[in-house]
Design a protein that fits this description.
Strands 1, 2, 3, 4, 5 and 6 form a six-stranded antiparallel β-sheet that branches. A hairpin with a 4-residue loop joins strand 4 and strand 5. The chain has one domain. With 179 residues, it is an alpha+beta fold.
């Protein structure tokens, strides 16, 4: 700011700086949540191998580490202050089948609201607690199991159903690289 009264540019720069700090805090919160979720959900599933990866929410993907590329704000330049999407690649078979579940997280006051595409919403009171994360793992697990169960039930009843769960599938012949 200038030594005299702030100029319009000074006020604009101050507002942009405040926005930048808020958007970085938003991204850091959501990324931390996503990383905790990926780790806790694999443990929740009880698989000894790596069974959950953070992957991009759209586009091509493989079960591997994408780092910041797993988030919808990746590559945007100026970090937007907005809800952040990310994908979870989840192992669903012993033969290399994976699905991507897309989630969107948004900070709403003292809460972090998480939406599963094609599924339920879940609210976390901040700060996050291991107990609440375990509750969410149960919701996510039920969502996945219900997808497969309902599709098979519909087929056995003579139809293919039509419920879109927000999943897409991939198959890998080799074990994904270690984290």
């Amino acid at each position: 700011m200038s030594e005299e009264s702030p100029t319009r540019f000074d006020r604009l720069a101050e507002a942009a700086s405040r926005y930048g700090e808020a958007s970085l805090g938003n991204y850091a919160l959501i990324r931390s949540f996503a990383e905790q979720l990926a780790d806790s959900f694999c443990k929740y599933l009880g698989d000894d191998r790596k069974c959950v990866w953070l992957v991009p929410p759209t586009g091509a993907w493989l079960p591997q580490n994408y780092g910041s590329g797993a988030f919808s704000v990746s590559g945007k330049g100026f970090l937007p202050l907005a809800p952040v999407g990310f994908g979870l690649a989840v192992r669903v078979s012993e033969t290399g089948d994976w699905i991507r579940v897309v989630l969107t997280a948004a900070k709403q006051g003292p809460d972090l609201d998480v939406s599963i595409t094609g599924g339920p919403d879940f609210d976390f009171r901040l700060p996050l607690t291991p107990e609440r994360l375990t509750e969410f793992n149960a919701v996510l697990y039920a969502h996945l199991v219900n997808y497969f169960k309902e599709a098979a039930d519909h087929f056995e009843s003579g139809s293919y159903g039509g419920r879109d769960m927000g999943f897409d599938f991939t198959h890998t012949e080799n074990e994904p690289p270690a984290a």
